């Protein structure tokens, strides 16, 4: 199946778009053989540096590279300004929603979001009721997945408000591009992204517990070196100049979380955790977890540590909640959402379920709690048998699924053996929340490398591109 | 400030890099013996395995002490926890865990060594290629060492790394000597047969000292000189004294930095004092084997104390 998609470089109707004009001029002067060489250079750099990720369930290739394409995805200054306004508004609403949902629950009382959607939701943590995190921030680091349909239509596909990953690729992609094509960055003014780690550090320091004396001690908590995103955890700790800790390094000492150092236990004030809620504290959540810190939730409730992102933020990016985001944005900001949602059928509603089952070959059906492109069906790309099989799963547990129309995601060219060829892309900008909201000009562009494919997830054969925001 | 787990990772990363190289050196010495003396080759391979501490595991798997079997077991067998391949893989896993403590150059040299050795050791080694494989292993570990010494800050991270290197190296040199201690005993030394000459050269070769020996002592091999060189010489980078000179130095840095001395300082200091006061004659008089056995035991204890004193676990 081929969808008529909007190409961000060379739309069929209007020809070369303006943000790409300088790049296009440069590209035309290049020797194709040299570009192919550069592509191989890039792969060598990534492999040497060990920028790999683990693919679960594949024993052999336990460390793989995310393919990198050397054609940048370019966004004009104007487009970016519009996007950031929408993102800021959305992030404000997400934090306000979280504060409300764990306190007065006014949005439920007002009937704008159904009560049972919260009460029965696994992502809602009753342990967080009445807890106000340091500085009142719940979700500190957010990766908002955005797709584009046409020149002026952007939609939010997903709000990643728990532990969004991929920011290390944004940084390494830029680093690699600057190494490969230094001359490009002299000719074209691209806004820098490399200060992200400094911003992250400042942002985390700004939300330290009130009781902290002096400069806070910050640490990144990783599940360990076998985790699929371990490279990123190590990378961020390194770039921020903070400790990379595992659960086995930490324990509660005198009402504070402390790490075991060669000189004894040292207090930690801010923990940027890359461990899921359920593993965070075996005394509060999963008792079999060896990845967390026994008792950390007590320290948290006493206000003696900042956990970023706060436990329980998953309720804000849950796929069942997603469909209510327009209402949520309007409820807390008093204005219509600048960035729209993709129309979504909640399969828990009988009418919607009926529609989805009847049109399953046209829709994208996702698990409410799934992520990483696992457990989803892209109707138009699936065989009849796959559709039937999925319909059965869907009918058995309708509330576990949502469905969305198959959108013609915009395309951006990649370099193939036969020259440039369009492939579908999405965009994940990274947002930092402390006493202010900061968005690094850029983000991670994920690209579906298979012709016609709409699945951009790295675990499903997606690649990445450097993302340029022009300083124009 | 350093996490105990990170100190542990640095320590073992370096022990395993050292071990990966030691295995290649032992195979090299064995190969040399097998090439020059065909009659007793299997006995020589047996000593190589004993020095590597891998004889029991080897005989569970093989019945013949052949070059191909021993080289395969010591270099590429991933079921052997001390083989070069396993060692380099363990070193890399540790390096990955402590990545934030390493310079980019150090990490990349370890990662690249792992990639290239994995490729090279993927298939059984053709006997004709063995010398070039051994060279490649030594080259990769030399590159790691170069990147490490050339780029790492001399702080506690460096200290814990060096502790791993020298504890492993001291253990290795002591074991090589202990396996062959009888050929160094004075009663045999008077004979000085061709056979002994080969044995002595083999010992020196397994610590890459067959050339440098001649720079320091006279051209002829003399057992007491060989023992002196490997045990007491302060300049010889694989001697027990050299290892303990650096072990005490790095422990002193840590003690000064942290303002605290531990059991490991006492243990290392005792061994160091014993080595610097001793003469090779005293050691022979008291019994070379006993001396080495005690040394190996104390060295293991030092490793355990370092782990405990600096909260590795």
Automatic annotation (TrEMBL), chain A:
The organism that produces this protein has a lineage beginning with:
Bacteria, Pseudomonadati, Pseudomonadota, Alphaproteobacteria, Hyphomicrobiales
Q: Which residues form the Circularly permuted ATP-grasp type domain?
A: 72-448
Q: What is this protein called?
A: Circularly permuted type 2 ATP-grasp protein
Q: State a single Pfam family of this protein.
A: CP_ATPgrasp_2
InterPro entries of this UniProt entry? Answer: ATP-dep_Glu-Cys_Ligase-2, CP_ATPgrasp_2, UCP005522
From TrEMBL, chain B:
Q: Which InterPro entries match?
A: ATP-dep_Glu-Cys_Ligase-2 (IPR051680), DUF403 (IPR007296)
So which domain of life are we looking at? Bacteria
Where's the DUF403 domain?
2-310
Question: Pfam families recorded for this chain?
Answer: Alpha-E (PF04168)
Q: What is this protein called?
A: Alpha-E domain-containing protein
Q: Which organism is it from?
A: Mesorhizobium escarrei
